[in-house]
Write a structure and sequence with these properties.
The chain is built from twelve helices and 21 strands. By secondary structure, it is α/β, with parallel strands linked by helices. Helix 2 runs parallel beside helix 9. The chain starts with a strand and ends in a 10-residue tail after the last helix.
Length: 419
């Protein structure tokens, strides 16, 4: 459920007609609904309230906008970060350092030091080597780093290969059958307080059974590690719950997810940690765009919009589907290819798609663009960095400026020896 609805034939974000935003900010622009964001944050949090001890860390990489993080901080979410830059955003939004989980396969020594200085609550270690390095750094600083060990359960998440992270051939975590040995060795290191296991098998999961299979494996490993005399007080179950991108698709609901976890983790006696991203932010945003022109095609017309793969990379990267709707649909339909202006054939949002009839100058949206949208934007083809707007009832504000190519150009230097 979201708050992007037609009123009087015009698509609104909550009480704001989208043409009003386009007129002032221009296009393309991401538009977020605060009410939708809050609602998703609460539905997920309330669903998991059936579990005894829960820690929620929003996956910042899915939408790191400061205003978005502010809303989630107020809803009691911590942060799952994968770089010092993301940690700084979480802290700037008022998320306590103690509620920050630092994930990622390539944390640098400098990032570890910065996170330790800030008081980062937990590091999710992705290798024995990383654990040794973190222990040394923390010990040298006179600190103890709190950590979990990320395991690779070798479970097929059944999602797109590029967002699958829990198969043996993926770079993430330590191999399942070596995890207990690594856990024991890292537990002995001064400077490290290893307190549990972590896993995250992939994103945009359409079914719960791969998660269930992975959690069952993690539970048996937890018991084996405890049997060897080591403490396991925290189990980080990651994120990955998918959302519908096409009208009519059915995805696991948070209460079904919670019920499955309650069943699998019964008797675990551990704090359960979660790192939801997409399920919180996916539906909270649209990418608002204007049709530049409609070009005749061999088979179908090409609808060329002013948004491109640099603004919304998912279709080009993952063959992802985003529903496309006219802001003022006239009631007729057309079959068309939707593309951006970038000089790459992968700058294609849809082929042979049945859409609202649109013409030059019409506004339209790509829906479900709140997760892995603006966060992946770049300036390829020397395009501007796409701006972001947040709507709250009848008011709205720009929450990320459009960064013009001239600003980016001004950060470039021509060395003297080229003059
Ligand atoms: C990306 C990521 C998440 C969030 O995934 P979603 O599918 O957006 O819920 C959680 N944990 C880790 C370690 C991640 O890399």
């Amino acid at each position: 459920m979201d708050h992007f609805e037609y009123r009087g034939g015009v698509l609104h974000a909550e009480d704001v007609p989208l043409p009003a935003i386009a007129a002032e900010v221009g296009t393309p622009v991401y538009v977020y609904s605060r009410a939708t964001l809050t609602r998703h944050a609460r539905v997920f949090r309330d669903a998991l309230a059936v579990l005894p001890k829960v820690h929620l860390a929003f996956a910042v990489k899915s939408n790191p906008n400061l205003a978005v993080l502010k809303v989630l901080a107020a809803e009691g979410y911590g942060a799952d970060v994968v770089s010092a830059g993301e940690m700084d955003r979480a802290l700037a939004a008022g998320i306590p350092a103690a509620d920050v989980v630092f994930s990622g396969v390539g944390k640098t020594a400098a990032e570890m030091r910065r996170a330790l200085e800030a008081g980062c609550g937990q590091f999710n270690l992705e290798s024995e080597e990383e654990g040794q390095e973190l222990a040394e750094i923390a010990h040298a600083m006179g600190l103890t780093a709190t950590a979990t060990l990320r395991i690779n359960p070798d479970v097929d998440a059944g999602t797109h290969a590029k967002i699958s992270t829990g198969k043996a051939e993926n770079k993430f975590g330590v191999p399942f059958d070596r995890a207990a040995g690594i856990y024991g060795r890292l537990s002995a290191l001064p400077g490290l307080n290893l307190r549990g296991l972590a896993l995250h098998i992939g994103s945009q999961l359409a079914r719960l059974d791969p998660l269930e299979a992975a959690f069952i494996k993690a539970g048996s490993l937890m018991r084996a590690i405890r049997a060897e005399g080591f403490a396991v007080t925290h189990m980080d179950l990651g994120g990955g719950v998918g959302v519908p991108y096409r009208a009519g698709e059915v995805y696991p609901q948070p209460d079904e997810y919670a019920a499955m976890i309650a069943r699998v983790t019964d008797g675990w006696d551990a704090t359960l940690m979660f790192e939801p991203g997409r399920v919180i932010t996916g539906n909270t945003g649209v990418l608002l765009t204007e049709v530049v022109r409609v070009k005749a095609g061999a088979l179908h017309p090409w609808v060329v919009v002013d948004a491109a793969m640099n603004d919304l990379a998912r279709p080009a990267m993952y063959d992802a589907w985003h529903d496309f709707s006219a802001v003022k649909p006239g009631g007729t339909r057309m079959t068309a290819n939707i593309v951006g202006p970038i000089c790459e054939s992968s700058d294609t949002f849809a082929m042979a798609r049945d859409i609202d009839t649109v013409a030059r100058g019409d506004l339209a949206v790509f829906r479900t663009a709140g997760a892995y949208g603006a966060t992946m934007a770049n300036t390829y083809n020397s395009r501007p960095m796409v701006p972001e707007v947040m709507v709250d009832g009848g008011r709205w504000a720009v929450v990320a400026d459009r960064i013009e190519p001239a600003t980016i150009l001004s950060a470039e230097r021509v060395p003297e020896w080229l003059e």
